[in-house]
Amino acid sequence: MRLIEKETYQEASIAASQLLINLVTQEQDPVIGLATGSTPEGLYKQLVANYQAGNVSFTSVKTFNLDEYVGLGPEHPNSYYYYMAQKLFNQININQTQTHLPNGQAVDLASECKVYEHLIANAGGIDLQILGLGGNGHIGFNEPGTSFQSNTHVVQLDASTRAANARFFESEAAVPAQAITMGINTIMKSKEILLIVTGNGKAKALKQLLNQEKNEQFPASVLHEHGNVTIIADQAALSEMK
Ligand code: F6R
């Protein structure tokens, strides 16, 4: 794993955007895996700014998001569909039919998971997967204990994850109990992975990741097995390392 240390969240976001823009500029039909949450908001702002400045075009880009809450539709302000539309897709020249998220409102969730996995495979796999890090080591919504062999599946969200995400909802009880997520195996099949870790709240998890051997109780530790992982971290997230 390659660790790039940046001073601030802003600098980490700029470094992440440069890596993504380089890929979009170099690859003919790039397939990018996207994350939601607080961490990549700065990255998406940078992508929008670069698009507006004429530095990058997204017309040939295909995207697959990591996850979506079960039960929340595209119009729900807390759905990841809505998040992506607001923060990125509606502000750049991406072909919206080439953007994909799991359908959290699918009647048959199991078959939705299979379809999603096939869509990724049919696109030729993911060239670059963006990840954030959960305080408990989760990646996507793969909570501690998730099999490293898992493909896209339905998960029960951990109490700690629901508590962490309650800040976006009216209350913790309003956070959906389930989500659809790419599995660990799905994520590991990506050709390249960019993990962004920022803020004091992630310092313990980042330290654990860097020192932890592969262990299903700390899902992100699987990344040690991948040959092409870059971690971009800010000083706040690195504070436990000093
Ligand atoms: C989001 C996702 C999650 C987040 C993680 C960190 O699509 O899959 O794994 O990346 O929970 O969230 P933030 O960035 O809000 O701290």
From TrEMBL:
PROSITE patterns reported for this sequence: GLC_GALNAC_ISOMERASE
GO CC annotation terms, alphabetical: cytoplasm
Residues at the catalytic site: 67, 136, 138, 143
Domain Glucosamine/galactosamine-6-phosphate isomerase: 15-229
Pathway where this protein functions: Amino-sugar metabolism; N-acetylneuraminate degradation; D-fructose 6-phosphate from N-acetylneuraminate: step 5/5
Reactions catalysed: alpha-D-glucosamine 6-phosphate + H2O = beta-D-fructose 6-phosphate + NH4(+)
Pfam families: Glucosamine_iso
MF-aspect GO terms: glucosamine-6-phosphate deaminase activity; identical protein binding
Organism: Amphibacillus marinus
HAMAP family attached to this UniProt entry: GlcN6P_deamin
GO biological process, one term: glucosamine catabolic process
InterPro entries the record matches: Glc/Gal-6P_isomerase, Glucosamine6P_isomerase, Glucosamine6P_isomerase_CS, NagB/RpiA_transferase-like
The protein's name: Glucosamine-6-phosphate deaminase
